[in-house]
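Researcher: Dear colleague, please comment on this protein.
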Amino acid sequence: MKKISYLFLTIMFLLMANGLKAQYCTPNFTLGCDMGNMVTQFQLGSINQAITCSGSPAYYQDYTGASTDLAEGGYYTLSVQTGNVGIWVKVWIDYDDNGIFNSPGEVLTTMYCDNPGVTYTSSFTVPVTGYYGSHRLRFMASHNAMPTDPCIDPGYGNAADFSANIIAAVTPPTVVTNAAKAITSTSATMDGTVTANNSPTNVEFHYGLTPALGNVMIGNFNVVAGNTPTDINADLTGLSPNTTYYYEIVGFGPGGYIGGGTQSFTTNAVAPTVTTVAATEIAGTSAQMNGTVNPNNSSVHIYFDYGLTDSYG
């Protein structure tokens, strides 16, 4: 009898646990999402969902049948479009399945979207939690302020749930920044090598006038795959002569965000540009000689040759 009772209690506990896992808080937008106060398009990985101003209860929609894989430690970019100005968006994943998205690390990203119909993007790294399998992913949009709680009523806005399938970390890409090539006074070719290690990897160059870089350029490949090294290059033009530039190739995707290390190059120096212009303030015993000099980013010494003939002297 005791064994039967224990078995019954165990079954009841499992049923209750599964039931509790399915009981998610549901936001209720009392003012709704009319006039475009909402997210109208949500994209992350294989999820690409157009959203209308509807849903029950009030302006919440359940798209948990739409799922995408996210690898622990992976670096991903999500994008949204909104239907009005001044829309705040927050995105969560309920890694521990407690139904309220309040555990550390469950906020994926926040965004502020101020132009309807414009695609806004935000990147994030999936934390290492050990919670593998399918979990609920929720966005909440509000026209009032950044949502603080995925279970409350923010007034104007909308929300939707999707599924995120967390998988184990994959092998990071191998990324190496190589020395620049074809350097001239106004151009150079940035070079690098990326091995995707069988995980599709986005690739771009970051460059600038300081090691902080700050500019982004796509090379001859913007995504690499497979398990063989791929040479990536990008041409910079319109550079200043005799100037040092810094650059780094970066690979990112399911394998994480990997930089190849910063390199630098200095463009070739060119001769200064010098122009002699007409003398001024001419008097009986004096005159002012004039000219212009562009040193073209090099240090130059400047002086006048003069004399009674064109041999100067």
